[in-house]
Amino acid sequence: MAPTQRATLVTMLRATPANTEVLLVRIVKTKRVDEEDWKKDALILGRLADREMRYVAEPLPRSAPVETAHNTGRSVWTLPRRDCTLEFLNGIETIAHAAWTRLPSKRPWPPMPAPASVDVYVPGWTDAE
Question: Under 8 Å CB-to-CB from 118, ≥6 apart: which residues?
C-alpha cells in the first residue's frame, strides 16, 4: 500500500465512529499478492488508526464489468456471473452474509437477485424494523 493511500485511509478510519466495526478488503488485478504484506498493512493501519482492524485475507479480483456498473450507477447484481465477476460477487455476498448474521434481527438471510434480473431490489435489505 502506497504511503499516500495509507495516510488517506488512516484519516478516514480515525473519523469513523468508535462503535463502527471495520473490515478491510483488497481488490486486486492479480491473485499474486503477498498475504504477509497484506497482514502487515492491516496491522499498521490498526495501530495508526488506534483501533482494532479486521481484514479479509483472500483478495477479491478486480472485475471490469463490476467497475463499469459501479461507475454508471447500475447494480452489480444485474451482471452476468462468470469469471472474475462471479468470484467478486461471491466474495461480496460472503462478506454481506457475515455482516447480516451480526445484526440483532432474527430474519433469515435474503437471497441475492438472479443475474440480469429486471428488479434488483433485495427484500429485507432496506426494510425498517
Answer: none
Integer Cα distance of 69 and 85 in angstroms: 11
pLDDT over 50 at 121, yes or no = no
pLDDT number for residue 100? 86
Higher pLDDT pick, 124 / 71: 71
Averaged over 56-62, what is the pLDDT? Answer: 85
Contact 98, 118 (CB under 8 A): no
Question: Does the predicted TM-score (pTM) go above 0.85?
Answer: no
The answer to whether 26 and 56 have CB atoms below 8 angstroms apart is yes
Domain ranges of the chain: 3-62, 74-129
Exposure string of 73-102, with b = 16+ CB inside 10 Å and e = fewer, is eeebbbbebeeebebbbebbeeeeeeeeee
Give Cα separations from 9 to 14, 46, 102 (angstroms).
Answer: 9, 10, 24
